[in-house]
TrEMBL record:
<feature type="domain" description="Response regulatory">
    <location>
        <begin position="3"/>
        <end position="119"/>
    </location>
</feature>
<keyword id="KW-0238">DNA-binding</keyword>
<dbReference type="GO" id="GO:0003677">
    <property type="term" value="F:DNA binding"/>
</dbReference>
<dbReference type="InterPro" id="IPR001789">
    <property type="entry name" value="Sig_transdc_resp-reg_receiver"/>
</dbReference>
<dbReference type="InterPro" id="IPR050595">
    <property type="entry name" value="Bact_response_regulator"/>
</dbReference>
<dbReference type="GO" id="GO:0000160">
    <property type="term" value="P:phosphorelay signal transduction system"/>
</dbReference>
<feature type="modified residue" description="4-aspartylphosphate">
    <location>
        <position position="52"/>
    </location>
</feature>
<dbReference type="Pfam" id="PF00072">
    <property type="entry name" value="Response_reg"/>
</dbReference>
<keyword id="KW-0805">Transcription regulation</keyword>
<keyword id="KW-0597">Phosphoprotein</keyword>
<dbReference type="InterPro" id="IPR011006">
    <property type="entry name" value="CheY-like_superfamily"/>
</dbReference>
<protein>
    <submittedName>
        <fullName>Response regulator</fullName>
    </submittedName>
</protein>
<keyword id="KW-0804">Transcription</keyword>
<keyword id="KW-0902">Two-component regulatory system</keyword>
């Protein structure tokens, strides 16, 4: 079973994403802010980390930049979710080290497709 981390500060969206991905057979840990997400990443092993761009305590970009410097975590796959969907924001996220980007709002089917695509490599 693939293990994912979802870092999202909006409880309703977090619940919807977790329910959608658990129905597909994924095991998911949940973080509600950037600090919590970073702690999960440093202490666990994940096949994919899904980060919200704007979170309290640490943004998704800040997390990516810190994770990419950690020994043994440089290659963690990271998908960024953001309501900031301008091309410049996507470029910034990818330049920081994210492996993928999805604009909010998104459909559950699109999320499943993106997660499966990223896990296939």
């Amino acid at each position: 079973m693939k293990k994912l981390l979802l870092a999202e500060d909006e409880p309703i969206l977090r619940m919807l994403v977790v329910d959608t991905l658990e129905d597909e057979g994924y095991s998911i840990d949940e973080a509600s802010d950037g600090d919590e997400a970073y702690q999960y990443i440093t202490s666990g092993e994940y096949d994919l980390v899904i980060l919200d761009y704007m979170m309290p305590k640490m943004t998704g970009i800040e997390i990516i930049e810190k994770v990419r410097q950690l020994p043994g975590k440089e290659n963690v796959k990271i998908l960024m979710l953001s309501a900031k969907n301008q091309q410049a924001e996507q470029d910034k996220v990818l330049a920081a080290g994210a492996d993928g980007f999805m604009s909010k709002p998104f459909s559950p089917l699109d999320l499943i497709d993106k997660v499966e695509e990223m896990l296939r490599g």
